[in-house]
Amino acid sequence: MQRNKKINKMPYVLAVCSFVVFCILWATYKTSFIQAFDSKASDLLFGNKFITMFHYLGETKFIFAVTIVLWIFILIRKKDLKLMVFVIFSVGGGYALYQLLKRVIERPRPDIVDQLSTYSFPSGHAVHGLLYLITIAYVLNRVITSKSASFIIWIIAILLAILIGLSRIAEARHFASDVIAGWLLGYSWFILSLWWLKSENPYWGSNKIEN
Length: 211
Fold this sequence. Notes:
This protein is mainly α. It has helices at 10-28, 32-45, 49-52, 60-77, 81-105, 124-140, 147-170, 176-198.
């Protein structure tokens, strides 16, 4: 007799709400209210050298290098093929998603000297930074049994994701609304990836990699 698994629906509800708010920001970033918010956030954070340092943790090359290490970790410790595909779906798919949206939306970046030539909305550092950090936290928590260690890992991942996003405002590479939109999109994509991981697909077969 199969036991009914209790599913916590709250993360999925939050993911839908998060995506809705992302869409609202997409539709309203040109309004005076959002522009005033962006201006105040820039005045508050611009030039903060401590926050600026964290942008390195959100660089694409660094993220993909860490993702490869995470893959090796899963291969050695878990031998879980589906979990490895989940990492690709979360981190790699998230990268493709925000790159596509940047080209669709085409919001110019803040007007500063030596500005980057790519588009601004959503912030890639915010999307990708959040995705790879919480993906790492999730994978590690499938290995670690200590609740206190699990809590610390999640707190560190979230704090670093916040600092990576804020670094783009401090450097004037992005507007604050770009960064918030990036966090919202990143969370929604992660939960979608997690839904796939937890879904039972009869065609998938065994998750374990045989020796």
